[in-house]
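Protocol step 4 of 5: obtain the predicted structure for the target chain.
Materials: sequence only (see below). No template structures provided, no constraints applied. The aim of this step is simply to have a reference model before the mutagenesis design in step 5. Sequence pasted as it appears in the construct record:
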Amino acid sequence: MVLRGSGRHGEQTVNGSAARGFRAVYSQRMLLRYVVPGMPLFALPAAAADSSMATGANVTGGSLTLFALALALVAALLLRRLATRIGAGVARRIGEARLRRILAKRGAKVLSDFIVPGAYGGLARIDHAVMTTGGILCIRVLHFDGVVFGTEEEAQWTHVDGITRRRFLNPTIQNEGRRRALANVVPEVPVDGLVVFTGKVEFPNALPKGVIHVTALNGFLARHVFGPSRIDDWDAVWMSVQAALLTDEGSRRDFEAQLSFS
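Step 4 output (structure tokens):
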């Protein structure tokens, strides 16, 4: 600020400079309050560096402050997203480990993450297959937190977790294709489908048929009753399932490449 002269003229110069400084600060505050929250992350530092957005004048100190605040905001949001992603991955692995421990108690009659010829052509990847008394369970595993809305008849279900909302394919329909693929391998054996959710998931309504939480898996395996069968040699049945597995890398690459609901 430069003071020129004295008296009334000097007071006017001082007052004018103070007013411009007040307008600059006020404009910057309005920018932070209304404009910055609605901007994409990649645009914040550039916006902060451009002081003309805030004041129409070159206010170096204010620009540096805005730039620092924008960088801090971007860093905080990125760290929050990273922490959420890492936390979800850890929770998913914990849920899967819990399921595997339960299945391990069934002994050797468990297969996990394998590929067989699809029921309608192509290939089908099955999360888990468990042979129990009277038949085989084809298990589809999903990890969700939050709330899930869906019925047996709906083609898509809705998952709501905080402010995140997304639609996904009805897993009972999805698993039906896998169940049929497995049933084609051993056509004389009852094969039932089961969808198991891990994570802190809630269903506001009654669970659809064939859907349980991992906490109920032990009891389900103990109580589930298959349809009638005339199998005498269950070891031969399990050997037939194992012989049908497509374990080569080419089959796995083909599965990853195909567009499938199996």
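Step 4 remarks: The first helix runs from residue 8 to 35. DSSP finds seven helices and nine strands in the chain.
Proceed to step 5.
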